[in-house]
Here is the input.
Amino acid sequence: MARLRMFAGIGLFLAAWQLAASLEWVNPLLMPAPSRIVAALYDLARDGSLWTHVGASLQRVFGGFLLAAVCGVALGMLTGWVRWISDIVRPMIEALRPIPPIAWTPLAILWFGVGNAPSYFLVFIGAVFPIFISTYTAVRNIDRAQINAALCLGATPGLLVRDVLIPASLPIVLPGLRIGLGVGWMCVVAAELIAAQSGLGYMIQQNRLLLQTQNVLAGMLTIGLIGFLMSIALEWAERRWVGWAAAYRS
Here is the structure.
């Protein structure tokens, strides 16, 4: 019933939008009707330009995200496990974390020029901090009794990490990865608006300059759909891998 109400709400919104555009209650150049947006999306998909830009954006976001995941998880586990490393690293992390990723754009262009590299860097900057914080929190909050029990049973450091540290951390680390991927996806679009010659952000910017508002909104719709599918896929992975955790029980 809740899903029916959700889809009914979306349908009513789109119907009202279509009616307002058809009766020209809104400027059709600035706010085209949903039917025009769907037609523009179809045309972009048919001529192949949409898939080219989607592929470029996905390549950048996954490249930057994978680097952020490796660095964020490794550094989070290390600082969460070793107190003196935490005392050195955490102040620097907390000083850099509040800086918005978009604020790094001028430096990214100066350091890496225009192309893929600035986008990788901005995705990395946007994604690494949520991943680090979630991993650090997960490791710090592991029940000490689990660690002591493993040590009493003769667990080596490698077994302790593999069989205790990683499984106990996953219910917090995986949502952090999902948040990091979402932030990275937003960052790559922002980077492509300024410092790229391809990608969905670039497509939106180019069509804005040409006053092709329906293509701008088609690009925005594509971004929303891809982000939605990413979220669903990661939620499924979380439930599959850590379904035993209380937070994932239905």
User: Anything to note?
Assistant: The domain at 16-22+32-242 is CATH 1.10.3720.10 (MetI-like fold). Residues 110 and 191 are 13 Å apart (CA to CA).
